[in-house]
Amino acid sequence: MEEKLTDQEQARREKLPKYVELGVDPFGSRYEWKDSIRDIRKRVEGKTAEDLEKEKIHVNVAGRLLAIRRMGKASFVNLKDEYGSIQAWIGINVVGEHDYEVFRLADLGDVVGLEGTLMFSRTGELTIHVEKYTHITKCLKPLPEKFHGLTDLEDRCRKRYLDLIVNDESRRTALLRPAIVKAIRDYCDSLGFIEVETPVLSPIAGGAAARPFITHHNTLDKDFYLRIATELNLKKCMIGGIDRVYEVGRIFRNEGMDNRHNPEFTTIELYQAYGDLRDMMSWAEGLFHYVAEKVVGKEVFHWQGQDIDLSKPFRVVSMADAIKEVCGVDFTKEISFEEAVALAKEHKIPLEKSWNSTGYIMQAFFDELVEPTLIQPTFLHTYPIEVSPLTKKTADPRFVDRFELFICGTEFANAYSELNNPFDQKERFLAQMAARDRGDDEANEIDYSFLDAMEYGMPPAGGIGMGVDRFAMLMSEQDTIREVLLFPTMKDEK
């Protein structure tokens, strides 16, 4: 069914033949512009009206009209480009009757080009004294009102293109994210790490505990998974001799959506041969300092209602000690599975049927009682072996050398002293398959190609995975992941 036009939409369409009559394509072609509004403003810093009158600084800008104030034979407009906005004055006696007639057809949202010299208005506002007006593209739909327009988050995510036009904060975040990602790469490169690309399609779902998306390859007549992690392929690179390797890439997990989760997201995974967990702590803390300084220019961020101070050393605490601090239960002691179940019931910790050992319950204690209390940056280390199938054991074989970094009760990074014993790794994989048989559909599958690679000798290594989206949330002080994703996955409109 054809969409019914509003009066404003109809009026804009009725102007299209008038452009043609004036010899103007309403949906024009290439425009040769040379100045950004941000650079123009920097160029005139410290200058007076007399300076501008003397210097006759000529500019040529392109952007979108966000305000029009018509006054007969002269008008003021506001033009917005990628990084800023500027006022312009357009007079019929300067641009000529033809260009002014074209301008009379302008509506808010039209894309235009302006050439002229800089001046200050009577109120002291930097203004382009327009000498040539060029219509570039007609906007056929009215923009939302400035103060009562596109404010609902659902609407802004569905129409991100419109959100970027009218909301400066959304545009700032959209431009900040690629700067953050570039800084992450610069930091890694400066430390001698090599960026690689690994496949998105995988014959097995491995490298993380997550439910995968499944697709089908017609030629091979075989199901594949969209990757849930880049871990195993990156470790193969390290076995092959790339000692410091990383990848920034898209990950896909068939899970729920909320303020911190989207089914496709971006991570950085990184591995350092001959390193361990301590190297990963140093890398992670250094990354936060580097990006905060280089991109944002501060180290205290207001996020999730809290002031997060990155300038102080990050706290380091074991999972067992953190649990003991909160509820008094000490999981470093020998606790049988039956005793752990009783403790869980006493503390109202939910239980899963697939659990068969104390480590699962220890993790549940942490998830329920401790994780929400970790506000300032905290490295939470030494995890139960049951929940960490790819990690090297500690001196106590019940635990592994792993940490997660938490800020405001949110996981930011997951790191291991990597397991490099192929026999131990196979046993862990088999334990994961047994958990899958008990109903844990997020347990790892066995990757026999990875086991084969390990038998050629994998050096001891530290490894880390970090969510780029959550990192960008903190750096841009946004409380929902949808604000830092240009086009997040959305529920169907009702």
How would you summarize what this structure contains?
The chain is α+β, with helices and mostly antiparallel strands and 494 residues long. It has helices spanning 7-14, 16-21, 37-43, 49-55, 92-95, 97-104, 153-158, 160-166, 168-190, 231-239, 277-296, 319-327, 337-346, 358-370, 422-437, 448-454, 468-476, and strands at residues 58-71, 74-80, 85-91, 111-120, 126-137, 194-195, 201-202, 214-217, 222-226, 244-252, 264-273, 300-303, 306-309, 315-318, 378-384, 399-407, 410-417, 461-467.
Shape: elongated
Number of domains: 2
Provide the CATH topology of the largest domain: BirA Bifunctional Protein, domain 2
- What is the CATH architecture annotation of the largest domain? 2-Layer Sandwich
Cα(first) to Cα(last) distance is 18 Å
Q: Which whole number gives the mean pLDDT?
A: 94
Widest sheet, order of strands: 6-10-11-18-17-16-15-14
CATH class of the largest domain: Alpha Beta
User: What fraction strand?
Assistant: 25-35%
Rg for CA atoms: 29 Å
**Number of separate strands:** 18
Helix and strand content put the structural class at alpha+beta
Number of helices in the DSSP assignment: 17
| Helix content bin | 25-40%
Major pleated sheet = 8 strands, mixed
Low-confidence stretches: none
Relevant CATH superfamily of the largest domain: Bira Bifunctional Protein, Domain 2
Features:
25% strand; 2 domains; 34% helix; alpha+beta; 17 helices; BirA Bifunctional Protein, domain 2; five-stranded mixed β-barrel; OB fold (Dihydrolipoamide Acetyltransferase, E2P); 494 residues
